[in-house]
Amino acid sequence: MQEKEIEEIERTLLLEAIFLRYGYDFRNYSQATISRRIKQFVAKNGMGTVGELLPGIIREPLFFQNLLLDFSITVTEMFRDPSFYRALREEVIPLLRTYPFIKVWLAGCATGEEAYSVAILLKEEGLLEKATMFATDINDESLAGAKRGIYPLKQVKEYTGNYQDTGSVYSFSRYYHADQNHIVMDRELKNRITFANHNLVSDQVFGEMHLILCRNVMIYFDKKLQERVLNLFDQSLIRGGFLCLGGRESLRFSSLSEKYERLDSKNRIYHKHVAQNRPPQVRV
Amino acid sequence: MRFNLGAKLIFSHLGMGILPLLFISVVIWLTVAGSFETIGDQGVSAVEHAAHDQLTTMCSIKEKQITYFFRVMEGQMYMLRDNAWLQETFRSFDREFRLADDSVDSDEWNSLALSNDVLFQYLCVHLDWNNLYLINRDGKIIYSVQKSSDLGMSLNMNPLMNTSLGRAYSRIRTEQDRDIAFGDYAPYPPLDNLPSAFLVTRIHDDTGEMKEEIGYLAVQPSTEALRNMIKMASKKEESLEAYLVGADGYMRSDSVLDPENYSRAESFRQGNKVDTKASRNAIKGKKGTGIILDYRGNKVLSSWTPVDVFDTRWALICEYDEAEAMKSRTVVNDIRIDAENKVKRSVFTGLFLTFFIVGMIAWLIVRSISRPIVQAAGIADSIATGDFHRRLNMQRADEIGQMANALDRMVEKVAQNFHEKAVMAELSDQMRGEQDISPLATHIITHLSKFLNARMASLYLVDRSGETMTLTGSYAFHKRKGLNSRIKIGEGIAGQAVLEKNMISMTDLPEDYVRISSTLGDSAPCNILAVPFSYEETVLGVLEFASFTEFSDEQMDFLDNVTEHIAIAFRSAQNKRKVQELLEETREQAEELKQQSEELMATNEELESQATALKKFQQELESRQEELKETNAALEEKSEALTMEKKKIKNRNEELIAAKEKVEERSKDLALASKYKSEFLANMSHELRTPLNSLLLLAQSLKGNREGNLTVKQEKAVGIIFESGNDLLELINEILDLSKIEAGQIVKDVEEVLLIDLAENAETLFSHMAENKGVAFSVTLADDIPRSIFTDRKRVEQILKNFLGNSMKFTSEGRINLTFSQMEATAQVRSETLQPEQTIAISVADTGIGIPAEKQRSIFEAFQQADGSTARKYGGTGLGLSISKELAALLGGEIGLVSEPGKGAVFTLYLPVGTEMPPEKEGEQQQAEQPLVPKTEIPTQAHEGGIQKREFAVADDRDRLSDGDRVMLIIEDDPKFAEILLEQCHQSDFKALVTDNGEEGLRLADQYRPAGIILDIRLPGIDGWTVLSTLKSNAGTRHIPVHMMSAEEVSRKAMNQGAIGFLSKPVTGEQLNKAFDRFESVINKKIKKLLVVEDDDNLRGVLVDLVGNSDTETFEAGTGKEVENILAKHRFDCMVLDLGLPDCNGIELLRRLADTADLVVPPVIIYTGRDLSREEERELNKYSESIIIKDARSQERLLDETSLFLHRMVKSMPARKQQIIADLYDRDKMFQGKKVLLVDDDMRNVFALSGVLEQKGMEVVIAEDGKRALEMLVQEEGIDIVLMDIMMPEMDGYEAMRKIREQKRFWKLPVIALTAKAMKDDRKKCLEAGASDYLAKPVDVERLLSMMRVWLYR
Fold it and tell me: How far, in Å, are B923, B926, B1089 from residue B918 at the CA level?
């Protein structure tokens, strides 16, 4: 048997073990990604094969937490992709204004940068008061970081640039307090966001959302899992709700594509049709 | 050691004065000291006695105090226990204690305690008690002032049984005649194990006849009181202390000296016992004093006595350190030593004074003798160091005075001598060194003048001739008439002196001889002195001095001595000058010589080099001449050849020009021809497609053999006709494409194209095909490529389709891979504009048959394919790649191919990333897309082609129309297609009107108002577009659905102008069916009813205009009343409601409508400008489908929401679900009247669940988060079960459940957690937080109900 096949068996066993032991289901994650992450983790811990991980993972929850940290991708920044936020501001916010109250769900919030960015956007548009925000992730450690809302000062310059590119007229510094090395996000923003653990792979709908952001999370999922997650979002969204995906994610191949309209040509912002069998509008 | 004279004298005086005195002092001292000794010893023993007595007295006083202290306390306790109030209070406590099942937890007990606490506390404070206990007959503590942990506990049981309190209690219980019992100090656990003592006495009931014992009163004496009483410390005797020790050896009071180990608390805690002679004796009952070792191991003076407190014996010990006791003895000794010291002091004072006086006298005498001697010695020392100025000047007549005068004179003489020597030395100093003659002369004359006190002086030197002298130096000299700076030898006094070689001195000179002058005046000198000086008998010169005073002999002697030195100095100066002059001369000569030699050398070198150069030049010249000759010859030859060549070229040029002209002409023709061809082909599209359209449709229709009158063979033949037609169509399309490109009719439509979109489209199109063929197909996007490029999406897709289609065609197994990547720097492209970093490579790699190298070029050429057989095997026109190549070029890119026969091929499309094009160009492009041939030509062509004439062949249903018929208008100039359409109409139950031109079409539309119109675009006369826009601008025909069918390409323009669809010919039967379905759906649309409720007339009008359209009947209402009336009469599909109505509030209206049984309330859309509170929103959500807040984009939403309700298919609840609910109804009587608290912030869930639960007859209370849930639990009485969501804002489910369980009364309340989380740990977490059970979301209603059945079952 070739080394590659053996490794595949080991990986399958490991993922199965993780599922049985901790309930985290990575079996449907994109195997290329998972394989790469596991290999990195094996190398980092000075081990030779994936199989050597198994006893540690099963016996020591802390060790597993480390692996989980490596699995979940925490690369994120504030106002990443400013054009997206601009589109959100111009295309989505005006429609959200027509609801008495709105709920926003950030799935896979990682360390919270995006959640705070959206909260800032909502605040500037006067919608934060009306909004209930949920930011969820599977990684408790990331969530704890997100709750703290403390970020290194050295990144703030970049964030500020991004922020300005979103077409805002204010100063980014309104939303944080800085000390020598860090900034801490404004308490008002923090209080508006409910940070919670939610696993897109196994957990269910928990609320009725007007806006769901899940950007660059599903790229790590395989087709089957993507379909499940998109269905979860679809069930969570009100009719007329908005779904924002990352640049390389799409509704196009999913069974939902009929139900959604691509709102913005550059960014993946989808608008769920109000009427599913919408007749052609005759406007004179 | 040697003493000087003074010291010897002083010592001898002192010795004689003091020695007798010393002797007398010693005798007195010895007598006095003996008597002091005896007095001291008697004092010491008296002091020791006093210390013992003091300790004993202290001990007995303390002992009495302690005994008295406890006796008083006993008395106080008796007073208290006999007090009626106490007895009454005791009974009350006893009662409440018993009533509360021997517990002090009851509220009644608490209130009783509260009312009595103050008094008891007062008692304790005033009677110095730390605590007071009431103990009932069972030995249980029913009250204590401090309420420590022993409250309520029994003294008959552990842990209290063995405490001091317990022991005291048991003693008083067992010994009936005892009235008071004392519990000695012992650690008491309820009071942090602090050593505590207790007094217990009985309480009797005085009210009854019998003095019945009802309980016990126990008191804990204040530890402070006893401690303070015993505590003793003295400032004088620092180690003095008193303490109590129990029989067990532990301290009963605190030690002053070692409180860290021997305080009462610490001695018990650390187990430090006191076991000394004092404590042992005292415990045995003995009193005593003595010097012993105490508990610290120190030697102490101690007094001890036993102390009996009730039955307990303690040892009281007073003591202090022996060392301190012995201090008294020292005091007596001190007095004695003091007296001794006084005697000593007076003796010493006498001695000292005598010593001092004798010393002073001796000192004065010594001083007068030794001082002059010391001074004389000092002067001698000064002379030795060269100081001649000091003198003794002693005016004494004695021997010492004489000695001093002689010494002074001696000093004078020595000084004189020394001065002359010094001047001489100075002079020779001046003359030393290399000096020129003139400054030397000046130096000498100046110096000598100063020494001789001369007022004027001159120095003449004998010239070389030896006959004259020249004035060389002078001092304060000025020339006088007749006197020269040069004099002859023998002339004047100076000359004479030289001649004589002897000094000449003159005195008493006449007045006018010479004058010594200063700036202030002048005077004649009295004396002149001329001094010649000579070296080795040769006179060198003369010095002449003039002075007011006579020159002394000493001066003249001195000058005599000096002249020789001066002569030497001048001689050496003269010699030196001579040598110097010679040296200078020699140097100049050497310099000159050197210069001359250098010049010579330079000239030599120059000459040499010139000679060499000349030689070389000559050689070169020679060779050059040779070359020149050769070149000349060659040139001649060449020039001949050139002339020939020129002629040839001229001829050829002429030929070329002619050829070029021809070629240009030809290419012009060719281009023109090609253009004509292409234009022809492009324009032929219409003509080609039109007949093909009919052919295909009819063939397909025949193939269906609907009438069943075709034989199998015929059917097959028809099938072949159909397929061939299709092939033909494809071929035509491709040829047309190619020719369009070649004719330049295609203009690229540049837009931003997302690469991922391209990838996705390709995958959608081909993955299925690949699957069918059993070939693996994958799409890969490299990471480093840009997100998007600017190009013509349609063309790129066409190329990719060609590539992929090709690969699919030629690959029967293996895989096909579509890759998007950056162009590699090594990739070979022909165009230089394609920079690797600015170019995207899209390649299709397959594992198909591949292409041989020699064919790789030709496959891109039109009408060529790898080989003929391939074409036969795989089919296809082979134009695809040619088209692709042209398209790629059009997009600024190109196509690369790498292939090997049998190993597959890789086609790569290189595309520049491009930039955004200015948008205004698009207009031009669309213009350009119009066919080249002017529109007006079409009818003419049609006429000439004879395809159709004015009289139209199709017979329609014009004459057979009746009321209720559905009529379709067909505007189509191809009679065959029109026939097909007519047939289709009939099949779809339409009557049809057919016309071949737009003008008539419009007339018919207006006249017959058909249900639908099928419209062609190319029509004789006005075209289809004009027809469409005219139809849409006419109010009467605007609503008629128009479907366009044309040979032109699909255009969005049609939809924009209001057509319901567009079909591009040739159409298939399937497409045609779909088009008719579309008609059906539009035509069959029922008229919907909409109610708009708004009190402002203007606003209502706007709303009606906005929402209403042709298929909607809109009703309006301005008040609540009107709404109710209108709803009673009509059934509406939707209602738009503004919340602010004049006669009622919108929410109230909705509530009322919902309660009115016979009204059917349509879906309600709230349209309001008000900001709503969360409560209002929740309330409104119960009655309405959606809420829209008026804002910039709200109209859009209103339109969407209304159209949802106006057009949606009304779906009733699935029958199965209804059935389930009906079935359950009887079983679920247990749910009747149960109250459910549903905690969830997801309103859909809330409504869905509350709907089901209410149907079961349950009352549902809703809370949107944990906080609210807790409030509701309190607010709403009798909630039977809680359904708790987990993930909620504010307070989540876990916390809410924990908070619920914290309240005792909700311990048994069933709480079912509903959670969206599916992790293994979540169930555990829910149960830990207090959930009774757990249900995963989405909620399965049946499971929930069965779970609720379990939890609600009683």
Answer: 11, 14, 47
